[in-house]
Design a protein that fits this description.
Layout lengths: L2 H6 L2 H4 L3 H6 L3 E5 L2 E7 L3 E9 L4 E10 L3 E7 L3 E7 L15 E4 L2 E6 L2 E7 L4 E9 L1 H10 L17 H12 L10 H25 L1 H18 L7 H7 L4 H12 L3 H19 L4 H7 L5 H12 L3 H7 L5
Antiparallel strand pairs: 1-2, 2-3, 3-4, 4-10, 5-9, 6-8, 6-10, 7-8
Length: 324
Amino acid sequence: MTDHAIRSESREIQTLYRPQVEQLGMELHYQSGGLEGQVDGDICRGRFQANLAGPYCLVIWHDITFLREMSFSEYAMTDYACLTLDESPVSNPVPYGVQPFTMQKGNMVSLIQQAGSVTNRIPAGSRSRTRSICILPGYFMELENQWPGQVGGLFDAFGRPWPSNIAQSALTALSTFAPGRPGQTEFLIKAHIDLLMAMLAQASSALVQSHEPSHDRDLVQQVKAHIQSHMDGDLSIDRIAQSLYVGRTRLCLAFRRQTGTSLARYIREQRMDRARRLLSFTKEDVAWIGRQVGYVRPSSFSAAFTRETGVAPIAWREGSNCIE
């Protein structure tokens, strides 16, 4: 991790660790290939290290003893995949809050951390010692865009058990991450993660392909629900793909296989269908109706509506007998 990388890290990456270390009263410094910090205060004592591994991955190690009870909050801007090896004393409470998690091997778990805030009450005397790999959705999107159809189901795989050999490889990789260990460069850490994800992708793709029709159906249902609930917002295909953690190519192919039409055409049809209903059954002005179906400029809405129906919005309303 370079000084430039630290300064330019995304807000999504920052929220994975900065709010937490601030609650502990800890200052971080760049050394040994990552950010390290120590604290010895009234609230807690211990050590922390974070290593960036590309723009979407972060490896975190910490060993913190809480000297008094406290409410500890975590926040994430987006859902992300997480693999954690818990080396805390067995008497500690489960450190994953209310998030569902999957036991993989030993004390290692995987989970899909939901966006938002989670607050846990930590008793005095508790010791938390964990190693975690946090992977943002952008990592999986980048893989899918680079290798269409070859990494299907990788993000979702963090919510189910892994084959034993992959879980063992993950446990071995996590065990190598520790403060001060030589050779923990950003390149080598990223290589460990990429190799692990390649093994997991191979197993996940085989599972997805064996259940491809049902996976496609589920994906298309999610797409349709997303479109209906975001009709007045950004319904670009890239944005939908990002929201559903799937590659653009995979999304478009699945939608066409299931519906026989393109996703772009379906979005246009759904917008114009809602616009026709609003024109027929409400007295709202055309500009307002345009905004309800995702058009900020009335002229853009009128042009799109006219192309789709052959008549202007005002003419459509005048020809409708549904408004008293």
